[in-house]
Q: What sequence folds into this?
């Protein structure tokens, strides 16, 4: 895509919405009911889905919550205001995201209880060094499957500490960056109207329906959404709900379709050595391929083809040494990663960062003069304050004070846990007072000017490896003050465009944080008490968590002070070859004018994503592009996200129903007479 065309598209986005003259309160009793609805129904279902099939309810949970409350309000002859809809949408996303942390590697209690006893951590010598404040080492305590045992109090306390301080930073520093980018520098935030318009459309549709009833033309979204919902209900009943319900009745749940995928790797070992083969029969992957950019899906498939050619070559050349015939997908992926792709993809990631910075700053340099002229013209026309009246803002001293408080708390707690190691303390100060503010400001400006962000890979890992810390792995579990808060600045712009007072957001956060903490811990305990995690009832976790643990141990073993998996995996020559490959690939695509999105797809397909999901996603992309788009034209691009959202909703709802049956069955107290 040329820079001129890109600029023209950005200009179109800039003019989509204007900041309203008045701001309304979005926090109400409806918000409280919505929070309880999410905590009691959506959170446990999402956690269970993640363990069962490796996917959550996702953005569908936000739309389900908003649509449900709009329909309830309509039947009560009331209408939700636009700020109220925005807060409901934000609340659903924040609650689901916070709860899902409990299932993510390196973050959740369910993960830590597994990681402590995993084969990877034990085999690589990491398990014996995991600190007590992450997970207890006593196997009798772990066998009780009880997070309310005193041995788990420190880990729960650390989770609460991370959650509270992370939310404070996300609120205050992000808001301060937004004030800087939007109010002072007058940056346009071109991508913000996209999400804001979707929420505004729901509010406008309420008004239309109240005035003239449901019209055929205005109701197409609901019809398309319903079609996707029925498909999701039907497929989810077989794929997700059946294993959830039968898991409560039998020792091993009944699965008609293999979860998470059908593994063909041992059968294709002679034809494609060191290549993971198989396919995911999850229809959601097919739907995802229809929604995602076409050339990204093509790139992923090309990356998989390159992997299928490259891996046998590397195996025959003696580079991939850890693989042996008969290994399944998990072992094959790890063998290829530790022998080659760990260093190679580090180099490719570095190339992506370099090229990304070059492209963004190249476009920004061309656009800077125009933005400065527009800003100067706007400033000359303004006679009032630069901050919109009634938006609800905080003084600068509160922003700076909050960040200083959280950064100091991070450093003090981490210093206490790491025994004040001088090298690590220097890294903590560097992250807190230099890197995090700097990268957040750069990202905020990029988001505000071009709607783009650029990632710098492996910064934290490199800093700790170079810190001189050795002999233990405690450093990898510290609450470190490193994050990129500039990404969330667009959220405040969306709030501004929807006329939502910022104080509504902050009051919502005060309500959400304790709900996230309590619901996450309680449902983690309930899920773990029902059955071991991972285990036969959670096939995705049983299959994939060991691979995640092995990949994490590569980095964590770097500070053990002896020859480790990291020493084996880190190869500067492979890293440089990956760097060269990434730069050359970008240059070639740039010269022949192919979409840059193709590059990201290729990188995604290079042993980075499960190859089993690449094929159904590619098939979905082909059918979407060459059948539906040709038959329906541009309307299909409007329809397919709504179909996918309906599918995710239907699948999520029937899964939540199955999870509810499972929970009820296992919560019954059996009387021994």
A:
């Amino acid at each position: 895509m040329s820079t001129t065309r890109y600029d023209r598209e950005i200009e179109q986005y800039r003019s989509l919405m204007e900041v309203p003259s008045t701001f309304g309160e979005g926090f109400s009793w409806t918000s409280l009911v919505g929070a309880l609805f999410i905590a009691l129904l959506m959170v446990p279902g999402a956690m269970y889905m993640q363990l069962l099939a490796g996917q959550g309810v996702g953005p569908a949970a936000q739309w389900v919550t908003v649509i449900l409350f709009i329909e309830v309000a309509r039947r009560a002859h009331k209408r939700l205001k636009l700020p109220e809809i925005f807060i409901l949408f934000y609340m659903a996303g924040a609650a689901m995201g916070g709860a899902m942390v409990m299932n993510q590697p390196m973050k959740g209690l369910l993960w830590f209880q597994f990681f402590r006893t995993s084969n990877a951590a034990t085999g690589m010598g990491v398990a014996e060094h995991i600190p007590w404040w992450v997970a207890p080492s006593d196997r009798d305590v772990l066998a009780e499957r009880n997070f309310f045992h005193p041995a788990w109090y420190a880990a729960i306390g650390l989770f609460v500490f991370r959650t509270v301080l992370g939310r404070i930073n996300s609120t205050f520093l992000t808001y301060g960056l937004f004030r800087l980018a939007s109010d002072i520098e007058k940056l346009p935030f071109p991508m913000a109207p996209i999400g804001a318009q979707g929420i505004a459309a729901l509010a406008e549709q309420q008004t239309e329906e109240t005035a003239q009833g449901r019209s055929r033309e205005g109701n197409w979204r609901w019809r398309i959404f319903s079609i996707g919902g029925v498909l999701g209900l039907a497929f989810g009943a077989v794929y997700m709900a059946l294993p959830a319900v039968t898991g409560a009745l039998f020792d091993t749940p009944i699965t008609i379709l293999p979860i998470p995928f059908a593994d063909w790797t041992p059968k294709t070992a002679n034809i494609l050595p060191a290549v993971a083969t198989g396919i995911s029969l999850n229809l959601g992957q097919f739907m995802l391929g229809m929604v995602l950019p076409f050339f990204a899906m093509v790139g992923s498939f090309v990356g998989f083809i390159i992997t299928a050619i490259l891996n046998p070559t590397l195996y025959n050349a003696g580079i991939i040494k850890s693989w042996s015939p008969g290994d399944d997908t998990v072992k094959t992926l790890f063998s290829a990663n530790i022998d080659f792709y760990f260093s190679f993809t580090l180099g490719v990631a570095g190339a992506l960062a370099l090229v990304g910075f070059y492209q963004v700053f190249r476009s920004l340099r061309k656009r800077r003069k125009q933005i400065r002229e527009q800003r100067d013209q706007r400033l000359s026309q303004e006679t009032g304050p630069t901050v919109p009246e009634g938006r609800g803002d905080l003084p600068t001293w509160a922003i700076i004070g909050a960040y200083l408080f959280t950064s100091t708390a991070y450093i003090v707690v981490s210093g206490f846990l790491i025994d004040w190691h001088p090298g690590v303390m220097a890294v903590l100060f560097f992250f807190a007072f230099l890197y995090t503010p700097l990268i957040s400001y750069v990202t905020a400006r990029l988001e505000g000017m071009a709607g783009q962000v650029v990632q710098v890979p492996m910064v934290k890992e490199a800093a700790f490896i170079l810190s001189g810390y050795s002999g233990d792995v405690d450093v990898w579990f510290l609450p470190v003050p490193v994050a990129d808060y500039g990404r969330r600045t667009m959220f405040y712009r969306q709030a501004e465009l929807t006329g939502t007072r910022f104080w509504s957001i902050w009051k919502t956060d005060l309500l959400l944080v304790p709900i996230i903490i309590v619901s996450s811990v309680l449902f983690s305990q309930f899920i773990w008490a029902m059955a071991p995690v991972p285990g036969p009832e959670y096939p995705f976790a049983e299959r994939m968590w060991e691979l995640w643990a092995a990949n994490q141990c590569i980095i964590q073993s770097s500070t053990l002070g002896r020859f480790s998996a990291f020493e084996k995996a880190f190869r500067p020559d492979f890293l440089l070859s990956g760097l060269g490959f990434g730069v050359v690939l970008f240059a070639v695509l740039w010269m022949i004018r192919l979409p840059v999105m193709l590059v990201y797809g290729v990188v995604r397909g290079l042993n980075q994503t499960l190859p089993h999901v690449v094929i159904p996603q590619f098939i979905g992309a082909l059918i979407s592009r060459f059948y539906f788009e040709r038959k329906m034209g541009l309307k299909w691009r409007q329809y397919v996200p709504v179909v996918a959202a309906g599918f995710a909703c239907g699948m999520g709802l029937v899964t939540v129903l199955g999870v509810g049956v499972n929970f009820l069955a296992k919560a019954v107290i059996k009387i021994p007479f």
